[in-house]
Amino acid sequence: MKNLLLPILLSFALNLSAQQLKQHRWQNRLLILVDNEANSDKMLTQLARLKKDKTGLEERKLIVYQFSQKGYRKGLSNKNEWLTITNTTNFFTKKTTAFRIYLIGLDGGIKMQKQNPVNISTIFSLIDGMPMRQAELRKNKK
Fold first, then answer.
1. What's the distance, Cα to Cα, between the start and end of the chain in Å?
2. Is 108 left (phi over 0), alpha (psi -120 to 50) or beta?
3. The domain spanning residue 84 has which CATH number?
4. Largest CB tally within 10 Å, which of 4, 48, 72, 138?
5. Domains in the chain, number
6. What is the tens place of the pLDDT at every residue in 100-109?
7. How large is the greatest C-alpha to C-alpha distance in the chain, in angstroms?
8. β-bridge mates for residue 103, sequence order
9. What is the distance of C-alpha 117 from the center of its chain?
10. Which residues of 17-33 are buried (b: 16+ CB within 10 A; e: fewer)?
């Protein structure tokens, strides 16, 4: 079920082009932040936590996408321009107004899904325990 959610989540609900998704697979991990309100308390809290260790994000090849009713934007800034999402009706419904955070691994699978902001140490611990990350760390030690 989780593996089916990713294509639906990213392809239809978020409406990123296939080319954009392909550029990340096996290259980057994704942290997807979703909330109906662009500047909700939970969204701002999560962004603030992530901004505390930008180097750690880069080391783990982690790219952040923010999604709201306004559209989407890449990165940690809450000042970047929102890009248009053409079809949000499947994603933003009255039942899904709450904040959500998804961690997508290099393989495209959902590795974490939460409804509240997560400490950056929790995210890093999860990533650092993944086999692909362990291989990266061993390779970097050589």
1. 38
2. left
3. 3.40.30
4. 72
5. 1
6. 999 999 888 8
7. 51
8. 31, 112
9. 12
10. eeeebeebeeeebbbbb
